[in-house]
Write a structure and sequence with these properties.
Helix content of chain A: under 10%
Mean pLDDT of chain A: 95
Radius of gyration of chain B: 13 Å
Structural class of chain B: mainly beta
Largest interface: A-B, 27 and 22 residues
Largest sheet of chain A: 7 strands, mixed
Shape of chain A: globular
Structural class of chain A: mainly beta
Mean pLDDT of chain B: 92
Oligomer: heterodimer
Largest sheet of chain B: 6 strands, mixed
Strand content of chain B: over 45%
Shape of chain B: globular
Number of strands of chain A: 11
């Protein structure tokens, strides 16, 4: 099925652990973004990419790294998990910004 | 700070009534997009309006854009219980390829 696939759907981490959230799309979209959603805060942009090899910081990049080695994949790495990173994470992709397709999200809890 | 702010934060109406929600933004934009999010799900793109357009329709949705006031409105006509969701506007922040979301309007349609 065409779309944006995020894995895992749920994750519990201990403070200080690292992990990678996976995101893959099969629509040949150049634009990809990572957002986090906290209650009452809407979606906040973490990092984004406008093509393979090109990434840039969003509104809340601290504590996260990204890379974009292929058009299809855009993984998000948590370097040292903190309770403040407990959130729902969404990956999204778009053809030149004309409407984003979202994945179903990863619910992350850091204890 | 958020690029887009939706108003009202919450809205409760009867089935069959119209629902109007507003979005204000801060910087110049190329386009403005509206998304819907059902509880616990990823966002779904509804409609995009470009900066040189003033009004756009899609089914029961009507979007207006006033670039002089930096605001947009989303009208849902003849609402249904299935329209119950959160609605977000998103804008590209000043040609940066960063798509920033507002905090959303929670719409509840009572049957």
């Amino acid at each position: 099925n065409a779309g944006v696939t995020q894995t895992p759907k749920f994750q519990v981490l201990k403070t200080g652990q690292s992990m990678t959230l996976q995101c893959a799309q099969d629509m040949n979209h150049e634009y990809m973004s990572w957002y986090r959603q906290d209650p009452g805060m809407g979606l906040r942009l973490i990092h984004y990419s406008v093509g393979a090899g090109i990434t840039d910081q969003g509104e809340v990049p601290n504590g996260y790294n990204v890379s974009r080695s292929t058009t299809e994949d855009f993984p998000l790495r948590l370097l040292s998990a903190a309770p403040s990173q407990t959130s729902v994470y969404f990956c999204a992709s778009s053809y030149q910004g004309d409407g984003y397709t979202f994945g179903s999200g990863t619910r992350l809890t850091v204890v | 700070s958020q690029q887009g702010e939706e108003d009202p934060q919450a809205l409760s109406i009867q089935e069959g009534e119209n629902a109007t929600m507003n979005c204000s933004y801060k910087t110049s934009i190329n386009n403005l997009q509206w998304y819907r999010q059902n509880s616990g799900r990823g966002l779904v793109h509804l409609i995009l309006i470009r900066s040189n357009e003033r009004e756009k329709h899609s089914g029961r949705l009507r979007v207006t854009l006033d670039t002089s006031k930096k605001s947009s409105s989303l009208l849902i006509t003849a609402s249904r219980a299935a329209d119950t969701a959160s609605y977000f506007c998103a804008t590209e922040k000043g040609g940066t390829y960063k798509y920033i979301f507002g905090t959303g309007t929670r719409l509840k349609v009572l049957a």
